[in-house]
Specification:
The chain is mainly β and about 525 residues long. About 5% of the residues lie in helices and about 35% in strands. A hairpin with a 2-residue loop joins strand 34 and strand 35.
């Protein structure tokens, strides 16, 4: 009887600690994908749906960053964690602007002041402000006591909250393999699950247990950095793995293979990886499409994406078997904005290919699921693809009925005459100038408007509102719950700084009633009250 009571007390204590830890996590944003790992959050806190750095509307503070960067913003209590590229203070004419080192920053959430910074050295060079990611792309993760910072150029370091280094792990990312050079496109986002921290590393052993030069997930002990397992299957460095739980509550990560520039990991498709041991739960070999997306899945289904075939594959997430292909083209409704009349025009039941001469190309990494609806930005026609669209639209795909809807949104918000006005259907560009007035990008593709052939920041969903960010440094707020995907779904377009002078390929975070976002120049706190 006494033993039974002791066990009961231990169980209750464990349950209470678990509930407390879960509550703590959900009051914070402990990793790039948020507290749930799926880029979504439901909260009782009031969420700003309209804001402007230009006018100061709902902006609580703005703080200068020492250099640009592309990581998410991790939040725990009164501390923010993010990475930037190592600051540039002088440019040499004709010399490429490249680097492999980043700064890990701990920032005061009250005012944006830097509390401490640490340098993480890497080995693989990346372009600064490259529109397809850089060394600072992976965001940090935290458990409230320690924070793990990533450098995609080959460094993972653990610090305590005072900035003391606990351990450091380095590796050599793949740059060249069998005569093939790969551009710096590192889209991995890390996760922390219990005492397990996940990394993506290149396997450089010729021992026959893995493919030489391929990328794999590495399961590491968060306390020591010790390797616990390597995933059975590989993933392309373009792919963003996705954490979720199976029907029986087992945490697992979906990884994908297949991409541009002859990435070697094959066959093209998905693997669901068991986090206990890195073993494959199932594998899906796709007959079309590439893995430049979030590997979206939940306990019921997984989604595989295509760039030119105009379909989304709906898989059974218990088995990996294809259930159906959903057309992005057939029986589609398209709502376009008529500038002369100042209102939307609806065209129903279109075959986008036959009626408009277009294919639908979901913009890379903008895919997110809310309920049984899939949302993404649509790439517009441009130099690389002429027959894609509809231009400047956001898609909503009903995964049950297969209904496809497209809603045009403005490209930019303008305050030149003192009021909020939207710019529609116009291709724009922006500058890549840092806080010291230096243009820190060599690549003209990094100055696009975010609607063609670049990597935008991942969207997040807070209380059913989706926040999409494009390279222009603007943030769309979209209502994912409307009955029809019409003008009522478009809540606002918000700026992170002056038009044409603001650059962002970043993801916002939300914690304790405040949204945090960043640009090349600034870290921004958004919330009600100003």
């Amino acid at each position: 009887m006494e033993l039974k009571m002791k066990r009961t007390k231990i169980f209750i204590l464990t349950l209470c600690l678990s509930v407390y830890a879960n509550a703590q996590t959900h009051n914070n944003w402990p990793q790039p994908a948020g507290p749930n790992g799926d880029w979504t959050l439901t909260t009782k806190d009031e969420v700003p749906t309209q804001f402007s750095v230009t006018t100061g509307e709902n902006i609580l503070w703005k703080a200068a960053l020492p250099e640009g960067g592309q990581s998410g913003i991790t939040v725990w209590g009164n501390k923010l964690f993010l990475t930037v590229m190592k600051p540039i203070h002088k440019l040499e004419e004709g010399k490429p602007i490249k680097g492999s080192d980043v700064l890990a920053l701990c920032i005061d959430a009250k005012d944006g002041q830097i509390l401490w910074q640490r340098e993480l050295k890497g080995s693989a060079l990346s372009d600064y402000m490259y529109g397809f990611s850089d060394s600072s792309t992976p965001g940090p993760v935290t458990d409230g006591e320690h924070v793990w910072f990533y450098n995609a150029s080959g460094n993972l370091s653990c610090f305590d909250f005072d900035g003391k280094l606990v351990w450091e792990r380095t590796w050599n990312p793949v740059e060249d393999l069998d005569g093939v050079h790969f551009p710096f496109n590192k889209q991995y986002e890390p996760f922390l699950v219990g005492d397990l921290i996940i990394n993506m590393e290149t396997y450089w052993e010729k021992d026959g247990s893995r493919e030489y030069g391929w990328n794999y997930l590495y399961g590491l002990d968060k306390k020591t950095g010790k390797q616990l397992w390597i995933s059975q299957d590989g993933l392309t460095h373009y792919n963003t793995p996705y954490l979720s739980k199976t029907k029986n509550g087992q945490p697992a990560i979906m990884i994908g293979r297949g991409g541009h520039h002859r990435v070697p990991e094959k066959p093209t498709g998905y693997s669901l990886i068991d986090l206990e041991n890195g073993k494959r739960i199932w594998k899906y070999d796709a007959d079309e499409g590439l893995a430049l997306y979030h590997a979206t899945w939940n306990e019921d289904y997984a989604l595989w994406y295509t760039e030119k075939e105009g379909t989304v594959h709906l898989l059974d997430s218990k088995t990996g078997q294809l259930k159906k292909k959903i057309s992005l083209i057939e029986d589609a409704d398209v709502r376009s904005y008529d500038g002369e009349q100042g209102k939307y025009k609806l065209r129903e039941h279109l075959n986008i290919k036959e009626d408009l001469g277009l294919y639908v190309f979901p913009a890379w990494y903008t895919n997110i699921v809310v309920g049984d609806k899939l949302f993404f930005l649509c790439f517009k026609e441009g130099r690389h693809r002429k027959n894609i669209g509809p231009n400047y639209t956001i898609a909503r795909i009903d995964l049950k009925s297969g209904k496809a809807e497209y809603l045009e949104v403005p490209v930019q918000v303008d305050f030149s005459n003192g009021t909020r006005n939207y710019v529609w259907g116009k291709e724009l560009s922006t500058e890549t100038i840092n806080i010291r007035g230096l243009d820190v990008s060599n690549d003209k593709r990094s100055r696009r408007d975010g609607w063609h052939w670049n990597f935008n920041g991942n969207p997040i969903v807070i209380n059913g509102k989706i926040y999409f960010t494009t390279m222009l440094g603007v943030v769309y707020c979209i209502d994912a719950t409307t009955q029809s995907f019409d003008e009522s779904a478009f809540i606002s377009l918000n700026d992170l700084g002056p038009a044409g002078k603001t650059w962002s390929v970043n993801t916002p975070s939300f914690a304790q009633g405040k949204m945090y976002h960043r640009t090349l120049k600034h870290l921004i706190c958004i919330g009600k009250g100003k």
